[in-house]
Design a protein that fits this description.
This protein is α/β, with parallel strands linked by helices. The protein has eight helices and six strands. The chain has a six-stranded mixed beta sheet, with helices on both faces.
């Protein structure tokens, strides 16, 4: 049922989220799918008036052409790197995937679960920072929270730098 699938990738543009993006584009995204990048910013930049409008609901869906424009992304407080943009442009070109981004502001755990329901997503891919048990207890694991509370299938991708 390709074309009807909305595959989400939670991205903060860290190495582990890029590993999740690579995994999703190589193993899950099929021709005509919608690839939705879910980004959560910790706080709203009140210098830019538009973000105040979307603080509770998240931004509108941002097309790939605007994701690739640093001036547009600056309005949202997002700095996409060249490697991630290359992966997104490649999957859009090679698999005719519709690539968009939705930005939320607040707690990543809650907002990613909210995105699953509100977009809605068919599945979500999320990276894992590889926190030890102690850090996970004190800091909380976003991927663990989403696996336990998300309402769609969630795949956790561990980045190669944490494997040993």
């Amino acid at each position: 049922m390709a074309g009807d699938r909305r595959i989400g990738v939670a991205m903060d543009f860290s190495p582990c989220s890029k590993a999740a993006l690579r995994w999703a584009t190589e193993n899950l995204v099929k021709d005509g799918d919608h690839l939705i990048i879910v980004n959560v910013q910790k706080e709203v930049s009140y210098e830019v008036g538009e973000t105040q409008l979307w603080e509770t609901t998240g931004s509108p869906l941002i097309p790939l052409s605007e994701i690739s424009d640093p001036n547009v992304m600056k309005k949202y407080g997002v700095k996409a790197d060249a490697e991630s943009l290359d992966i997104l442009n490649t999957v859009a070109r090679q698999k005719q995937a519709v690539v968009v981004m939705k930005i939320y502001w607040g707690d990543a755990r809650e907002k990613i679960c909210e995105a699953i329901d509100n977009i809605p997503l068919s599945s979500l891919i999320i990276g894992n920072r590889g926190l030890g048990k102690i850090k996970r207890v004190f800091m909380g694991s976003v991927s663990n929270f989403v696996v336990n509370n998300g309402s769609c299938p969630v795949t956790v991708v561990k980045s190669a730098e944490h494997e040993a």
